[in-house]
Design a protein that fits this description.
This protein is α/β, with parallel strands linked by helices. It is built from 13 helices and nine strands. The radius of gyration is 20 Å and the shape is elongated.
């Protein structure tokens, strides 16, 4: 059984050798954008395992995989998030990241270098827009900015806590939350937030699993890696979409104010999306 990530050229050789030896081969599609951003499947294996019906259609239309070779299995890589529980209560978590536990928290999850090569400027504009809000509760909310583990270098000389009140940047070096303490801290960040904001990142999907509404802004500087990517359309459209998408920061701030004043109905959209996109079976 040969299972290789789609973007490794070595996988083609494995499939060809397996076919010559009479060994069955399977491609497990590992991420939501692998069928749209990581090249073509040049040699079709015996089975292609995809997350959902949207990916099945991508495998058929973009890669020429026969429909009877594509199996919809859900996204196994996300299974552990459904069973996760917080490692710290709210007060302890706020002490850890240095935010006011008496105020709501909004979590900003940064994107990869491919999506947002330089995100510092946009994050500053985002914080400033919130701090200038006419909604007192939103204006004083705790803002936690979490760097992408592969895109943290741009933040080396930036101190958001010195520039703004009740704002934290954590963890400062960027950590890949693949297990242990790192995974617990990442989960706690999502769990204790009222909502999650970002440009275009798979972390939005994890936030939806945790049950948090997800927000983004149609930003001109990221147009090619938001609307210009096929996988962003999934976040917008599957079962009504995961995203609360704003045309600009003014509309975005109004959406966040409505969230903090509301009844939590915004979380239901995340549930519908996760059921269709991550666990369709």
């Amino acid at each position: 059984l040969g299972i290789r990530p789609l973007y490794y050229r070595l996988g083609v050789d494995h499939v060809r050798c397996a076919r010559q030896l009479g060994i069955k081969s399977v491609l497990g599609v590992g991420s939501w954008d692998h069928l749209t951003t990581k090249g073509l499947i040049h040699d079709v294996p015996d089975r292609v395992l995809v997350w959902n019906e949207a990916q099945k259609q991508e495998a058929i239309d973009l890669h020429g995989v026969p429909a009877d070779r594509v199996l919809v299995t859900g996204a196994q890589a996300y299974d552990h998030w459904f069973a996760a529980t917080p490692s710290l209560d709210r007060d302890a978590f706020c002490r850890q990241v240095n935010l006011d536990a008496g105020r709501p928290i909004l979590l900003y999850l940064c994107s990869s270098p491919f999506i947002a090569p330089y995100e510092v400027g946009f994050v500053r504009k985002w914080i400033t827009a919130i701090r200038n809000s006419g909604d007192a509760r939103l204006r004083g909310a705790g803002l936690l900015v979490r760097p992408h583990p592969q895109n943290a270098r741009q933040w080396q000389d930036v101190d958001l806590a010195a520039e703004f009140d009740n704002v934290a940047f954590w963890p400062k070096t960027g950590v890949n939350p693949i297990g242990g303490t790192a995974r617990n801290e990442y989960f706690d960040s999502m769990y204790h937030a009222e909502a999650v904001v970002g440009v275009n990142t798979s972390a939005m999907i994890e936030s939806g699993i945790v049950g948090r509404p997800v927000y983004t802004v149609d930003a001109e500087e990221f147009a090619s890696t938001q609307e210009g990517t096929l996988h962003f359309q999934h976040l917008k459209n599957v079962e009504g979409g995961l995203l609360h998408l704003a045309a600009d920061l003014h509309e975005h701030v109004a959406q966040l104010g409505q969230l903090l004043a509301g009844t939590g109905a915004e979380r239901q959209g995340a549930r519908r999306f996760i059921q269709a996109f991550i666990r369709p079976n």
